[in-house]
Amino acid sequence: SQQGEEDPQALSIQEGENATMNCSYKTSINNLQWYRQNSGRGLVHLILIRSNEREKHSGRLRVTLDTSKKSSSLLITASRAADTASYFCATPGGKLIFGQGTELSVKP
Amino acid sequence: DTGVSQDPRHKITKRGQNVTFRCDPISEHNRLYWYRQTLGQGPEFLTYFQNEAQLEKSRLLSDRFSAERPKGSFSTLEIQRTEQGDSAMYLCASSRDSLMNTEAFFGQGTRLTVV
Fold first, then answer.
1. Do B48 and A30 touch (CB under 8 A)?
2. How many CA atoms lie less than 13 Å away from B89 in the CB half-sphere?
3. Which backbone phi and psi does B90 adopt, to 5 degrees?
4. Do A95 and B103 touch (CB under 8 A)?
5. pLDDT per residue over B15-43, tens digit each?
6. Residue (of A32, A38, A52, A57) closest to B100 by Cα position
């Protein structure tokens, strides 16, 4: 079963705009991780946010975590065409449990 | 390149045949994971190892599937008597420690097509 659920399932924006993706999960967590997947490729880790953190930044990425609402968001600022990919949140136990992802399309 | 390596990248097989995939994790990583992903879906967990011990298997992993990591380094995933429903991307990942503490690194995947 999938722990995380991303919203929206698909998002289309213009270059330069911000993209926000949301993730909800069901059980208590130690951390939450975001990954990116370009079409037909493997996943690349973006950011890990621990349960005692509320916000974390990495370059143009900003991740927030609200453990009371069991939700997280990923914000990509000043998007580029190269950001076009699927984005997944994942919660760890012994393994990562992924949601279905948000497919982001950034148009030049 | 010292990332996670998977071989082959693509495999086309006839229904009923057996296939085997290989994964070479990052050398100092003691944990290794197998996932399956179909189009438009997130990766589904299959199994994972800590060193040579297989710690967990998903209920998705039918008895036609078997995974090994004999020396705690590379791993193989074998599918016997393949079915069309086995067509998917098979992803391998590794981590140096528990995912409670660190992230996973993924290979590029093996795309299986069963005809």
1. no
2. 21
3. -105, 120
4. no
5. 999 999 999 999 999 999 999 999 999 99
6. A32
